[in-house]
Design a protein that fits this description.
This protein has 438 residues and is of the alpha/beta class. Strands 3-2-1-4-5-6 form a six-stranded parallel sheet, sandwiched between helices. A six-stranded parallel sheet has the order 11-10-9-12-13-14. The mean pLDDT is 96. It has helices at residues 10-21, 33-40, 51-61, 97-109, 126-141, 161-166, 178-188, 203-234, 238-246, 267-280, 286-298, 301-309, 337-347, 360-367, 401-407, 422-427; strands spanning 2-6, 25-29, 64-67, 79-82, 114-118, 147-151, 170-174, 197-201, 318-322, 351-355, 372-373, 386-389, 412-415, 431-433. The protein has 16 helices and 14 strands. The chain is elongated, with a radius of gyration of 24 Å. It has three domains: 2-201, 3-Layer(aba) Sandwich (Rossmann fold); 211-297, N-(1-d-carboxylethyl)-l-norvaline Dehydrogenase, domain 2; 299-433, Rossmann fold (3-Layer(aba) Sandwich), CATH 3.40.50.
């Protein structure tokens, strides 16, 4: 089987590489000549555990190639997968410009049956728009070529994307023809042979499943952050509360961890897009509007705790921030809580030192010389008045607290992910404040 994946961003590159690894002949296509040149030279544009080795292995085997022009050899592909970006507009709606441009190009050049698969996250109804664009181009060419459109949303977690793709909890495919269903069933057969779910739906439902899934997870996060904030007021401990909640099989333990809000490229964008999609169709998503509001407020919680601890006397204080990416095992800082925390500190006149295992280069692009960058987590603590744990990388989980206390001017730790034992820190003379813990 031969397939083309258009777009070599996070989704396209991971998907194409994983398909190649199970024996599919894959061509990854991107209009960026610089990006394609880098990929041909083994330079991977994103940080994702295990991806670089897999790319190099499949390029060497000849199963994975990189091109800049979809038109070259377009009729050789059994299916074309669209994985281009759908960035949010000012109103939160998804920008479909790139998706529709790919569809237009396909319609202008195919000469035989083609299955156009949408893997980009797109609003409900995009499949029909794509169908109309391709059909319109074929009509302009006065050619009679059959084609199908399918929706195949991705559910990849940054930091675990390769594993998620190779061992999916479910694969969702929206189709409206038996021919398209048969092709997609063959494509995913190696991934679901061990009893994993391959779910076929209509196209509109597949498009909605992606948004609804992310919106539900975002809702659980914001809900638990609200509960954590209330726990602090009432003297309850959110860790005990979430364990008690998670023991109920109707609720379950996942995504019940409070913190300083969600970030990244999916949850914020998809919640906004779903709210906008509903509004455009005469339906208001009041719960999701509250989810957004809670999340934005929660990103300030570490700053508010820090400000309260020092009684508002924070101008000129040195703050060390551990963790910049929105989650561990990625360098992605899109909508990351660290950005809000750091901007609040800078606006208050604080000196900010930062350390992250992989996201420092990305932070340079965002903050420039407004913060100080460190190559070691302990160096970042020298003469600091406070340490803020923002991203729960593994190397932050068991620091030497004696070293921490000796390095800091004021040993105060504000734990945005509840990974530390407050009693242990207090016994070493370190002030500790977590999220919703008593």
């Amino acid at each position: 089987m031969k397939l083309a994946i258009v777009g070599t961003g996070y989704v396209g590159l991971v998907s194409g590489t994983c398909f190649a690894d199970i024996g599919v002949d894959v061509t990854c296509i991107d209009i960026s000549e610089h990006k394609i040149a880098d990929l041909r030279n083994g330079i991977i544009p994103i940080y994702e555990p295990g991806l670089e080795e897999m790319v190099l292995r499949n390029v060497q085997s000849g199963r994975l190639r990189f091109e800049t022009d979809i038109r070259r050899g377009i009729d050789d592909y059994d299916l074309i997968v669209c994985a281009v970006g759908t960035p949010p507009g000012e109103d939160g709606s998804a920008d479909l410009h790139y998706v529709l441009e790919v569809a237009r190009t396909v319609g202008q050049h195919i000469n035989g049956y083609t299955l156009f698969v949408i893997k980009s996250t797109v609003p409900v109804g995009t499949g029909e728009q794509v169908r109309q664009v391709i059909a319109g181009e074929l009509e302009r060419r006065c050619v009679n070529v059959s084609f199908d459109v399918a929706s195949n949303p991705e559910f990849l977690k940054e930091g675990a994307a390769v594993k998620d793709f190779m061992e999916p909890d479910r694969v969702v495919v929206g189709v409206d023809s038996e021919r398209a269903r048969d092709i997609m069933q063959r494509l995913y057969k190696p991934f679901v042979e061990n009893g994993r779910q391959l779910l076929f739906t209509d196209i509109a439902s597949a498009e909605m499943i992606k948004y609804a899934s992310n919106a539900m997870l975002a809702t659980r996060i914001s809900f638990m952050n609200e509960i954590a904030n209330l726990c602090e007021r009432l003297g309850a401990d959110v860790d005990m509360v979430r364990h008690g909640m998670g023991a109920d099989p109707r609720i379950g333990p996942k995504f019940l961890y409070p913190g300083i809000g969600y970030g990244g490229s999916c949850f914020p964008k998809d919640v906004k897009a779903l709210v906008n999609m509903a509004h455009a169709n005469g339906c208001e998503m009041d719960v999701l509007k509250a989810v957004e509001s809670v999340n934005e407020r929660q990103k300030r919680v570490l700053f508010d705790k820090f400000n309260a601890y020092f009684g508002g006397d924070i101008k000129g204080r040195r703050v060390s921030v551990w963790g910049l990416s929105f989650k561990p095992e990625t360098d992605d800082m899109r909508e990351a809580p660290s950005r809000t925390v750091i901007e609040c500190l800078l606006d208050a006149g604080c000196h900010v030192g930062v350390y992250d295992p992989v996201a420092v280069r990305e932070a340079h692009c965002i903050f420039g010389d407004r913060v100080e960058y460190f190559a070691d987590k302990y160096e970042a603590l020298e003469d600091a008045d406070a340490l803020m744990l923002v991203t729960e990388w593994q190397e932050f989980r068991m620091p030497d607290w004696d070293v921490v206390r000796m390095a800091m001017r004021t040993p105060a730790v504000f734990d945005g992910r509840n990974i530390y034992n407050g009693c242990e820190l207090r016994s070493k003379g370190i002030y500790y404040d977590g999220i919703g813990r008593n």
